[in-house]
Fold:
Amino acid sequence: MTDTVLRLIGVTQQYGIGATAVSALSGVDLEVRRGELVAVMGPSGSGKSTLLAIAGGLAIPTTGEVVVEGAYLSEQSPRELARLRRRSLGFVFQDFNLIPTLTALENVTLPLELDGFRMRTARRAGRDALASVGLEDKSSSYPDDLSGGQQQRVAIARAVVGGRRLILADEPTGALDSVTGELVLKMLRARVDAGAAGILVTHEARHAAFADRIVFLRDGRMVDETRRDGAETLLSGRR
Amino acid sequence: MSVRQSLLAILDQGPCYGYQLRAEFDRRTGSTWPLNVGQIYNTLDRLERDGLVEKGDVDEQGHVYWQITDAGAAEVHSWLESPVERGQGTRDELAIKLAVAATLPGVEVADIIQSQRRSSIAHLQELNRAKYAGDDAGGAAGTAGGAEELAWSLVVDSMIFAAEAEVRWLDHSEQRLAMHPDHTMALALSTEKPRRGRPAKAEASHPAESVR
Structure:
């Protein structure tokens, strides 16, 4: 099996047609491998969030291909696409997006239950995911009873539950103070080191520095990209 | 000077001999600015001359214990109470380079900014790696390790935030320059000899005016 979890090939996203067409993304090529966290940086309106939406199958590009774990999204039926989204990838948003009437564990297991997993299997996977972000003791807490940092860790657990391999994070620390934000990024990084792949959209250099590679967007174009330097990953130094 | 004040603040905790003082400074600053013993003794001599420390007991190994005086303790107190004034004197090489480059016709300042940004982010990645090397991925930030580790991570954090501030300034500069396409200035050969003293007040033809 290939280690490439996500590929964007010549992805272009246009809004409007003819002379008034606006390109949100132009000819973006990107490959994210297992164990790799790629940060996407750029000013407001540079196409960062559009890129993430397209990578996650939430938006369909005007031209170009998105390949998630070998599956071309353009060839999937809406039903297959929904299943792929449930099984292969997880989103982490700035404002957590947890369901307030569900406990932490129920939030985490929801994608598995929607996918038809048996309750017991789903709960076991959910508890493992919560433990991986250090929240094993919060499984029956409701989002309102958790701090912002804890809620975001629940969101990360939901993103990786059941062996999901692609984490798409859109400014995940935007609503958190700097120390809590750092802890959340460390957890995200640890999940990637444990075998997932991730894209981190951020405008903060301090956070982008948690990534292996950084791509820079300007007006929808990738204007620069740092190379993966081959050094050991962030948290694996002396482990 | 912060080394002098830091040594004094350590002595305020109790008498120390030279090597001990060096070790104490190192472990409280993450060994980021290693001092040699010569510097320590020079500083102690000057502190003694200024009446802030004095020689005390000598142990069996011949270590001379230095102890703080009342004046020294007062100095520590006032150091801790007053903010550190950032000197205006040092030139910021990057700010000068960017400001001048921005005025030069035919120079792509955006490229200069991007290459600097890459370098600053690479530096940030190195700092992050140093900060988290050997860290337990599941541990809470800042809770692992003892006081020495925390002291060290505070120092690394100060470097991380400084590097981040530089990138933010680069982002900001890039956007400002993009909003002002007329920022370059062709080399204007003056027919007048430059005068000594202060430049004349800005005239209507001042380049800053044409930017508006």
About this structure: The mean pLDDT of chain B is 84. Residues 2-81 of chain B form a domain with the Arc Repressor Mutant, subunit A fold (CATH 1.10.10.10). The beta strands of chain B are 53-58, 64-68.
